[in-house]
Amino acid sequence: MKKVLMADLQFSSAISKKNISRLFYVGIILSSILACAKTENDNENSSNHTHLASTANLVNISPVGDVVGKIVVGYQGWFSCFGDGSPVNNWRHWRNNTPPSPGNQSFELWPNVNEFAQTFQTGYANLGNGQPSKLYSSYQNNVVDKHLQWMQQYGIDCAAVQRFGSELGDAAMKATRDGIAVKVKNAAQTFGRKFYMMYDISGWANFQAEIKSDWINTITGSLNLTSSGAYARQNGKPVVCIWGVGVSGRPGNATSWTEVIDWFKSKGCYVIVGTKRDWRTDSSNLSAVISADMISPWTVGSYKTDADIDNYANIMSNDKILCDQNGKDYQPVVFPGFAWSNWKTAPQNEIPRRHGDFLWRQFYQIRSKSIPNAYVAMFDEYDEATAIAKSAENVSQIPSNQYFLTLDADGVACSSDFYLRLTGDGAKMVKGQIAISATHPTAH
User: Fold this and answer.
1) Which CATH number is 253's domain given?
2) Which residues form the domain of 20?
3) Higher local confidence (pLDDT), 16 or 421
4) pLDDT of residue 265
5) Is 343 part of any domain?
6) Is residue 78 part of a domain?
7) Chain-centre distance of CA 240, in angstroms?
8) Where are the beta strands (DSSP E) in 125-202?
9) What backbone torsions phi and psi does residue 20 show, to the nearest 5 degrees?
10) C-alpha torsion 232→236→238→244, nearest 10
11) What is the mean pLDDT of residues 30-34?
């Protein structure tokens, strides 16, 4: 089966959302299982919306746990290199099967690899500062340990470890993903972080049966991940996320998605669903989305300006109200910026980071709506330049013969760890540990 990248699902979600001319509010009042809907405009000038936002109980249903009241980062862990000791033993995601080289790459943001014990030579010329152009492998213990150490250092609570169902039929790929999951577990235990498994059902034709088999035989079976004290629990239950529920182009329907969600619940799990931004308006799939314990709408690529973010905050408020009415927790998604010109026909610096102002505005609106937690997309997504992990500051830190986005692209010099520090400050604000502020306190 052809491997489906996280990038592909982000792009399809983003494009579909960009083409929506207007969103309408669908309020659901449950009587027991059946719901009846009424339409409400999400426009920020709606007086009824203002009333709802001001009177709703904008705190999550569940008490603070490992995801409620916490900052979670998506952790891809999908980069591999030839000679890295992984079962797949080849280049993946930097470029598949061949060493990345000028014009031959599938990533946009160059990582800062100075703190990794082992790195791997690429086909690029030296960096602007004369150092060799090397990249890291996610399979290396020193890399995973360093990533979890950064999470501890910068105040990030939990990692959602991505698990792509379309890869699990390939023995080498599955073994590599299994190995990375164990490495995350060990590092999370060492550095006092939490982690949970996040299944991506994109391209996973037989997901309804195989996701259960993987959970029983691998996650809780041979890997025994949920027995770790570092495995995230909410309301006393191990957390699992299923990404793609209700998302266009993903396999399944409301019936199969609900059946899988209910199965995980029967196994004692707290279930998060990753769904599309406009999930409330999708009456055909709403029953499946609302059957989960926590709802997390995907927004990467769907807004660009502060005005866009502020308008989305009104949608977010009504999302939260519907979750409250149904006894569900709510986990909004934030991202630092977006671009993928190195491997798609697209503009460079497509959604500018604006030296942190873009990400901070999202944290600010979450805090303004009294939502106590967030999902940051992503920790290590260098493919689409959404990574918050350490990255190249300027052209002296990227290959001299290939364009890569750098952190100073918008005219302000930022340290390689700036977005980790910014996320840490955003976490403090969302949790109410520092005062709410429309401008970030983080030094560049």
Assistant:
1) 3.20.20.80
2) 6-109+139-390+403-430
3) 421
4) 98
5) yes
6) yes
7) 14
8) 134-135, 158-164, 194-200
9) -80, 120
10) -90
11) 34
Q: Judge whether 442 lies within some domain.
A: no
Q: How many CB atoms lie within 10 A of CB 432?
A: 12
State yes or no: pLDDT of 81 exceeds 80.
Answer: yes
If one counts the domains in the chain, the total is: 1
Within 267-389, where are the H helices? 286-289, 306-325, 357-368
Measured between alpha carbons, how far apart are the two ends of the chain, in Å?
A: 44
Amino acid at 59: V
Beta strands in 224-376 (DSSP E): 233-234, 237-243, 270-276, 294-298, 329-330, 333-334, 374-376
What is the C-alpha to C-alpha distance for residues 298 and 302, in angstroms, rounded to an integer? Answer: 9
Instruction: Answer whether 166's CB lies under 8 Å from 135's CB.
Output: no
For residue 53, the model assigns a pLDDT of: 32
Query: What is the per-residue pLDDT for 36?
Result: 33
Give the pLDDT band (50/70/90) at residue 251.
very high
Tell me the CB-side half-sphere exposure of residue 170, using CA atoms within 13 A.
14
Is the pLDDT at 47 greater than 80, yes or no? no
Does the pLDDT value for residue 292 go beyond 60?
yes
- The span from the CA of 317 to the CA of 125, in Å, is 49
